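We store chain and fold; example below:
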Amino acid sequence: MMKFRTGFLLGGLAGVAYGLLTAKRTGVDQQQAIAQYFTDVSQATGNVQRSVSGLGDAISRLKQEIDETLVPAVKDITETVDVFEFETEPRVQSIENHVETINSAVEDLSK
C-alpha cells in the first residue's frame, strides 16, 4: 500500500511539474488549476483507500460465511459418508464373498 501511495504521489508531482513547464496559463489561473489538480489527486487517493478498505471488509465477510456454512457442510457430508460406508460394509463384504464363490465355480468348470 505504501509503494502505491508513493508512486501515486510521485506521479502527481511529475504531472504538476510537467503542467507548470508546459502551461499556457499564468498567474491566478495557473494556481487555481494546480490547486484543483491536487484536490483531484487527493480525492482519487481517498477513493482508492475506501475501495481497498471495502475489499478487505468483503474478504472478511466471505471468510466468515465460509466458516459458518461451508465448514459445517463439509463436516456433515463427511459424517454421512462415514455412516454410509459403515452401514454398507457388511453388504459389500457379502457381495465380494459371492463373487469369489462364483469365480471359484467358474474355475472348477473350466478344469
About this structure: The mean pLDDT is 86. The chain has one domain: 2-110. The radius of gyration is 36 Å.
